[in-house]
Structures are given as structure tokens and as C-alpha cells.
């Protein structure tokens, strides 16, 4: 997909997910979640082309301007939207599918210092509420909805809906 088409897709995706978004120009200039995704694409490209130090430096610059930390090795699909964004952390071996929405202060993290795949895989059409923690090499099934402040340490079946009234650790 040509880069301009991808940028327009990102802008339109943000508008479709945020009722406060008024137009593409506003989103392009004032949405740190979108800036973080654009920055990640550059860092990821550098990482995959063996420019790992430059990728890490670039991702740190993006983090310092957006408050969103995405490791350059993380794999992110299309139409990913981070609303508000501050405090989001996405680990190196995280895999995020298409049409995923995430709110602020979410962590996709590891549970230890093991090597290999150690971060979550988020399948398509998942919503992750503010403050949620998804930890370890777990899979969040397609269409699942994770409530705010949930802590997930085991796989979730597709279309699992952790209601906001639920307060438990999986």
C-alpha cells in the first residue's frame, strides 16, 4: 500500500474511533497515538534493515514526544489506534493484529527475562481498556474486549468480553 494511502487510512481510522476528532488535519497535528504509530513504522523499518541502534534511538525520541513506548521489533497491523496514549508500553516480541484499539496506560509486557517470544499476541478487532496489563507470551483472541485495569496472564478465547464490572486477574 502506498505510504500516502496508509497515512490517510490512519487518519480516517482515528476519526472513526474518536468522536472528538474533527478532521484529518487535527488528527495529523495533535494526536500522539497516531504520531507514535507513524514513528514506530520508521523504527520498525530501521530495525528490520539491521540499523538497530538507530531504530532504538528513534523509538526513544518518539517516546519522549508522545509518552508512548513501542519497541522497534514489535509487529503492528493496520488500523491500530491508541486513544490518549500516555503510558502505553508495547514490548519487543508483541504482535498486534489489524483493527486493534488501545487506551492509555496499557502494557503489553513480559513476565520475566526469558528469551524468545515473551510478549502478547493480540489478534484482530480487539479493544484493550485503559490501564490493562497483558503479560507474557499469551494470545488475546480475535474480537475480545479487555476492560480497564484488567491483568491478563493467560490466553483469552476469541470474542471474550471482560465487562467493566468484572475485576479479576486471569
UniProtKB/TrEMBL annotation:
Metabolic or biological pathway: Amino-acid biosynthesis; L-cysteine biosynthesis; L-cysteine from L-serine: step 1/2
Enzyme Commission designation: 2.3.1.30
Compartments in which it is found: Cytoplasm
Keywords: Acyltransferase, Amino-acid biosynthesis, Cysteine biosynthesis, Cytoplasm, Repeat, Transferase
Main location: cytoplasm
InterPro entries cross-referenced by the UniProt entry: Hexapep (IPR001451), LbH_SAT (IPR045304), Ser_AcTrfase_N_sf (IPR042122), Ser_O-AcTrfase (IPR005881), Serine_acetyltransferase (IPR053376), Trimer_LpxA-like_sf (IPR011004)
GO-annotated biological processes: cysteine biosynthetic process from serine
Coiled-coil segments on the chain, per record: none
GO MF annotation list: serine O-acetyltransferase activity
Gene3D superfamilies in the record: Hexapeptide repeat proteins (2.160.10.10), serine acetyltransferase, domain 1 (1.10.3130.10)
GO cellular component: cytoplasm
Catalytic activity, reaction form: L-serine + acetyl-CoA = O-acetyl-L-serine + CoA
Keyword Cytoplasm among UniProt keywords: yes
Family, as annotated: Belongs to the transferase hexapeptide repeat family.
Protein name as catalogued: Serine acetyltransferase
UniProt organism field: freshwater metagenome
